[in-house]
Sequence to fold (510 residues):
Amino acid sequence: MRDGIFQVQHLSLAYPARRGHPAATILDDVSVDVERGSALTLVGPSGSGKSSLLRCLNRLEEPTAGVVRFGGRPIVELDPRELRRRAALVQQTVVLFEGTVRDNLMVHAPDTTLDVSEGRLREALTEVGLDAALLGRDAATLSGGERQRVTIARALLRDPQALLLDEPTSALDPPNAMLVVETICRLRDARGLTIVAVTHTPELVRRLGGTLLYLVKGRVQAYGPVHDGGIVDERLQAFLSGTHP
Amino acid sequence: MTSVVFGVIELSWWQLALALLLVLVVAAISLRERLGLERDLVIGAVRAIVQLYLVGLILATVFSAARWYWVLLILVVMAAIATHAAVSRLGKPLPGVYWIAATALTLSTAATLTYVIGVVIEPRPWWEPQYLVPIAGMILGNSMTSAALAGDRLQSDLFARRDEVEARLALGFSGPEAVQPLVRAALRAAMIPTVNGMMTVGVVQLPGMMTGQILAGASPLTAIRYQMVVVFMMAVATALGSLVFVRLAVGRYLTRAHQLRRYLL
Fold:
């Protein structure tokens, strides 16, 4: 029997019309399964609803219809704070708080406990390919690639079962992007982490393997395994070969 | 010839007309410097005359009627106008903001007024309009300004720092925990002008109420005592008004599932 970690069934998301904004359909009847320890990449043109789908998985966004299950239970039955520790999101915009790298790694909700022993912090940095000596550095002085990896380390300290990544390489130059791609692949292998990633980087799609969901205007255009040649869509093939605009 | 009543020089219409000449000086400056303010200036001057005259008539009527319900009605009308003014100063619309502002202004004013009138000044009867109306007006004015300042700061921060708020939510913070730094920034923004004002009160310029009392013949030593009460009550009105407003407003931006309502930003 398959061990599903996320099950998304007939998910739709729409925003009502408001002053100055027309009503908008963001996601339209999206269904997808993610197995534990596997990878799912979400690709598609900008505005296709990829990030919104990712945000529905940890309930930062509330769908208008459909169900998201995590570990077999509808996420509306779970405490959202607990869900978000189990399914850790790394946002597209890197957010580091004022203070050192150590301060950033130690950030946690007031009523929760987090193992932030020195050894654990060093281990988290090493795991994302950063030098443990960075712990005392002012977070504001880090490079783009370092910042991105610190946010991944911060998410890992919560011992998540799944890592949700929103365009983790979009703001990075190619060498730094490759470092982050390698970090993500290593984490999946070493920790058995489930990875769900929104990406425009064909390299990340290829290296992660697993399943791919191609969204266009909120609808599923193609859905299937990355490496079996199961997905036949010209635009998608163009994207995977790196020739997509 | 000027007439003197209870130590105050009564101003005649003729004297008011002389004061109005000062506005002509402003108009001349505006014309000469091409500021384009003449029209607004005329409207402003006319409104000032009409509004103040009406307020004078209403207050004179209420003062002479000497009924608690008339005083209360005046306070309700003042609170409604202050609510509208506070809301109109916000940068962006927010559902239910009228109730939020009305609750914030009513609670902060009622609490401050009860203490100042009931415990500190103790006029007899308690609703004596000579005390209640101007003091309530000052409290409302401060609550209104502070609620609007705090609300405006909260709105702009929620927009500018939305990723930061969601980063905390994604790390397992509750909604109120995730916005706490923004709430603090909004409250500080609202309270700093009042706290700074306490530092310079009486040094840079004499406060309006103190000036009024001195003009009305009160001893400066009496006037400063009242002014001290006013300064302290304005501080608490500012704190309470902005606190209640921000606490209620921030709730509109968060859901029970600890989500940020991005579409409201």
Q: What stands out?
A: The longest strand of chain A covers residues 4-15.
